């Protein structure tokens, strides 16, 4: 599997200076953390989940999260759990019948409700668990976090050598994190906890919808989550605690909940997509890579935005290659900026990691060339 594999060889060659690498759920954690990218949520109760996963691979689906939490009513839990077994059984049979399909399946995660449900699913799934890349932990805290990650650690310590590592992705979205008086203590406690399970933490995710609900807020498609001041301040602190280079965590951005309507007289579809593109751009500027999405139409815009521009790549590569003590600063090959090796080195390393997963565009290419012309010509 690789990003933009729906392109023909001719299209890939014309667009990419350096194309994306291939990967699967057995790839190294360092790259896999960046590869999560645009994660499409699907309610577990949806009858066509497995079929949709197969179908959407052709449209660029790379990561899917099967939801057992907020998208599921309290009276639907048992049915939703049984549905997970059906979906994974279908996908397992599909890979057996199509030997080349295993590497082509998306990264699959399940968002669980509680540590108890996680433990039960790990036990009940049996061999089907090897279809998964991991689990997503909602309302994550220092109190419930140990039980979540102990279940993951116990599985990994007893799994067969040939089985892939199972990862956890905590979502920071609860009241003690957003409320100012308790935020820093809670974030630091969570950071200390995650440090004990670092090998199994794939992403740290931000759940801004739950944060917003605590203030009765909901952003419009014209407004970025960074324009809601209580949420912005909390995201800033999350980045401060988990985004430090020495921590090594990849932070994934909040869900974009608008997918629009092409037929709306006020061009709502256009507003929703422009809002998504604007917010992902702000995510990137703040060091956030990854976005929870709720509609297939959001896949290509988010993924395209994670490609690396040729200028970024040349600067990053030059900085890393010049890190030998022979000089401290030099002019960019584009002759439009200075590159200071020590201050810009960590930025450069992150750019090179992203360039492997999402590729480097040719000098005259732009992310919009990866979008369907009929839908995004306005961007």
Care to describe what's here?
- The protein is α/β, with parallel strands linked by helices and 379 residues long.
- The protein has 15 helices and 12 strands.
- The protein has helices at 9-15, 29-35, 49-57, 77-97, 115-125, 142-158, 175-178, 180-196, 208-213, 229-242, 268-285, 299-305, 310-321, 341-358, 373-376, and strands spanning 16-18, 38-43, 63-67, 107-111, 134-137, 167-172, 204-206, 251-256, 291-293, 329-331, 338-340, 360-361.
- The strands form 3 sheets. An 8-stranded parallel barrel has the order 2-3-4-5-6-7-8-9, surrounded by 4 helices.
- β10 and β11 (338-340) form a beta hairpin.
- α5 (115-125) runs parallel beside α6 (142-158) and α8 runs parallel beside α10.
- The model is unreliable at 374-379 (pLDDT under 50).
SSE order and pairing:
Layout: H1 9-15, E1 16-18, H2 29-35, E2 38-43, H3 49-57, E3 63-67, H4 77-97, E4 107-111, H5 115-125, E5 134-137, H6 142-158, E6 167-172, H7 175-178, H8 180-196, E7 204-206, H9 208-213, H10 229-242, E8 251-256, H11 268-285, E9 291-293, H12 299-305, H13 310-321, E10 329-331, E11 338-340, H14 341-358, E12 360-361, H15 373-376
Parallel strand pairs: 2-3, 2-9, 3-4, 4-5, 5-6, 6-7, 7-8, 8-9
Antiparallel strand pairs: 1-12, 10-11
In short:
By secondary structure, this protein is of the alpha/beta class. GO terms for molecular function: lyase activity.
Tell me, what's the shape? globular
Give the strand tally.
12
SS-based structural class? alpha/beta
Proportion of beta-strand residues: 5-15%
Distance between the termini: 28 Å
Parts with pLDDT < 50 across at least 5 consecutive residues: 374-379
Total number of helical segments?
Answer: 15
How helix-rich are the residues, as a percent range?
Answer: 40-55%
Side by side, the strands of the main sheet go 2-3-4-5-6-7-8-9
Radius of gyration: 21 Å
- Average of the residue pLDDT scores: 93
| Order of H and E elements | HEHEHEHEHEHEHHEHHEHEHHEEHEH
Let me know the largest β-sheet. Answer: 8 strands, parallel, barrel
Keywords: Lyase, Magnesium, Metal-binding
GO molecular function: lyase activity
InterPro entries: C-C_Bond_Lyase-like, Citrate_lyase_beta/mcl1/mcl2, Pyrv/PenolPyrv_kinase-like_dom, Pyrv_kinase-like_dom_sf
Protein name: HpcH/HpaI aldolase/citrate lyase family protein
